[in-house]
């Protein structure tokens, strides 16, 4: 049922976003990729998606800026004639205690991780209502449900994403449009690998030891989720079987938020 539909996946040139884009493409969904990446990375990502037999394009919009999001969505309509699925995945991180958190970093994290979700939804929802079908999937985090020290902007933004998800679900109820959230725990992405590298350097550990240390602090399964795990859930939430699932938050966190 998804074949021929079009999805915008923000932050999708690598990591979770790319995993979701590939999973949707395997179901026949055309993809608008988005994210900050060099030309070689974008070319490789587009080629991998195209090899799955769908149409693909790329837009480098800074999703923290409403005018760039509007332009990206207009470009998607021009290229594919529809926007059926929006996956709000783009995110950035900065770590510091509250009293030392730079204001410019606060503004950047809130813009990218929270405001962008509002900007895309505000633009896409009328189009989806008009067609009587749409799927909005917001990638929150385990940090949308529980907190960690030194991540005030990230935790605040991810909590807010869950609140926005519920509001949109209520406003769109009965229209054929659903809005749900996925809350990953530790997923082995370039962003998480950077944290592993920092632990390894700080504590004099191997990559494997640093990975185990990171996982043991939060994720009871002591195993990373994969971008493909997140993608499979996104596909389900887009399916007809999930047509009455809206306003929900699904964890893929190895038990992180169960304790």
In total, the number of domains comes to 2
Uncertain regions spanning at least 5 consecutive residues:
none
Percent of residues in β-strands? 5-15%
Mean pLDDT equals 97
In the CATH classification, which architecture of the largest domain applies?
A: 3-Layer(aba) Sandwich
Provide the helix percentage. 40-55%
Tell me the name of the CATH homologous superfamily of the largest domain.
Answer: NAD(P)-binding Rossmann-like Domain
- Biggest sheet strand line-up: 3-2-1-4-5-6-7
Question: Count the helices. How many?
Answer: 8
Which structural class should the secondary elements be placed in? alpha/beta
Gap between N and C termini, in Å?
A: 38 Å
C-alpha Rg (nearest Å): 18 Å
CATH class of the largest domain: Alpha Beta
- The CATH topology name of the largest domain reads Rossmann fold
Give me the count of strands: 7
Shape, per Cα inertia axes: globular
Order of helices and strands: EHEHEHEHEHEHHHE
* Biggest beta-sheet profile: 7 strands, parallel
Description:
It is a single chain. By secondary structure, the protein is α/β, with parallel strands linked by helices. The protein has two domains: 6-185 and 225-252, NAD(P)-binding Rossmann-like Domain (Rossmann fold), CATH 3.40.50; 188-223, no CATH class. The protein contains eight helices and seven strands, in the order βαβαβαβαβαβαααβ. It has a seven-stranded parallel β-sheet with strand order 3-2-1-4-5-6-7, with helices on both faces. Helix 4 (103-131) links the parallel strand 4 (85-88) and strand 5. Helix 3 packs parallel to helix 4 (103-131) and helix 6 crosses helix 7. The longest helix has 29 residues, at 103-131. It is globular, with a radius of gyration of 18 Å. 43% of the residues are buried.
């Amino acid at each position: 049922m998804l074949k021929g539909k079009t999805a915008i996946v923000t932050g999708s040139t690598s990591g979770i976003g790319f995993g979701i884009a590939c999973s949707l493409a395997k179901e026949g969904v055309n993809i608008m990729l988005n994210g900050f990446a060099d030309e070689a990375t974008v070319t490789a990502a587009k080629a991998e998606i195209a090899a799955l037999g769908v149409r693909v394009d790329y837009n480098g919009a800074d999703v923290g800026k409403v005018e760039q999001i509007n332009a990206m969505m207009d470009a998607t309509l021009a290229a594919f004639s529809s926007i059926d699925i929006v996956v709000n995945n783009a995110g950035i991180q900065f770590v510091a205690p509250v009293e030392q958190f730079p204001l410019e970093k606060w503004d950047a994290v809130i813009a990218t991780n929270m405001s962008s979700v509002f900007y895309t939804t505000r633009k896409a929802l009328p189009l989806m209502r008009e067609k009587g079908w749409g799927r909005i999937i917001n990638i929150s985090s385990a940090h949308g449900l529980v907190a960690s020290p030194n991540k005030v902007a990230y935790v605040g933004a991810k909590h807010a994403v869950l609140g926005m998800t519920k509001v949109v679900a209520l406003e769109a109820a009965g229209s054929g449009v659903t809005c749900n959230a996925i809350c990953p725990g530790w997923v082995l992405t370039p962003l998480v690998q950077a944290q592993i590298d920092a632990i390894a350097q700080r504590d004099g550990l191997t990559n494997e030891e640093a990975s185990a240390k990171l996982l043991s602090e939060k994720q009871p399964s002591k195993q990373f989720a994969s971008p493909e795990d997140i993608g499979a859930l996104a596909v389900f939430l887009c399916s007809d079987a999930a047509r009455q699932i809206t306003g929900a938050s699904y964890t893929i966190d190895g038990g992180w938020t169960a304790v």
